[in-house]
Amino acid sequence: MYGVTQEQLDQIDALIVSDLIGIGVHSVIVVDVAGNVIAEHDDGKTDIQVHAFAALAAGNFAAVDAMAQLVGEQEFSLHFHKGEDESIHFSKINDDILLITIFGNDVSLGFLRLKTTEVIDKIKEMWQTTEF
Amino acid sequence: MGFVNVKKQEVLVKLVYYGPGRGGKTSNLDYINNKFKERIKTDMVSIKTHGDRTLFFDFLPVDIGKIKGFDIKIQLYTVPGQVKYNATRKLVLKGVDGLVFVADSQVEMREKNISSFNQMKENLVAMNKDIAKIPLVLQYNKVDLAEEGVPLLGFDTMEADLNSEIKVPSFEGSAVTGYNVVNTLKKAISLTMVSFKKELL
Question: Which of residues 88-147 of B touch A (CB under 8 A)?
């Protein structure tokens, strides 16, 4: 069993809202590799079954990781699924936690990647000072 | 590793139904899904093959109410039972808090029950978990088949095969009729919550 402090969650929430929802991302979900939802935010117009999504996302990430090892890679740290209207971007915050963003055609993949990398760096920085 | 979210005041618990292929793991979740429809706000997610066998997992979140102001969300998973899918079973077992082992009571399934159970032990060891410590409930499923004249192993034989060492709670059950499905789940939840409490204290 583990937990995340209130302060850590507040910091993560603020970052997600300003840096990701702020650029037009529809929904952001932070999950652990067991499929638990740690944080979730959306633009108020998106309706996703978050817990089911988290379970599938964690499973998907684990499956792709297993595929990576089969081709001799340690991991694929970034996954991206392109849809007609909605796309999903997965990245690893650390070995246990994933950042998932769901966004439409109005956000470019390049910009999103840049922003998620920044957010992940900031989250890692926060957690360096507190044991997670 | 159950997850406590202080901000949302919720505790997420992962319960995994494990057992041999076609033993009734998905049927257990189907029954729970139908029985507690009003408490389950999310659709059950199933990743199946074309032949209707579980390929990856089934997922069903159930809210069981509050403990000390925290919403307790039980997330039920099944593993694929077929022997060849052990890699997938390991993935689904990640972060497991409690287990239900669904064995098949039919005489011809005896070996499969035992080998699935042993593999579960091995998989837990690989994740540094001890079968003697993790909350676990056994369900000897398909007892309804007795009425149709199908030879069954019987409670004592199954206890001797699977439960002689660990001595955990066990139930005869029938996922099709619902017999002991809810009791199995309740027992698994209560064992898991007790083990959480121990960890927290």
Answer: 88, 91-92, 94-97
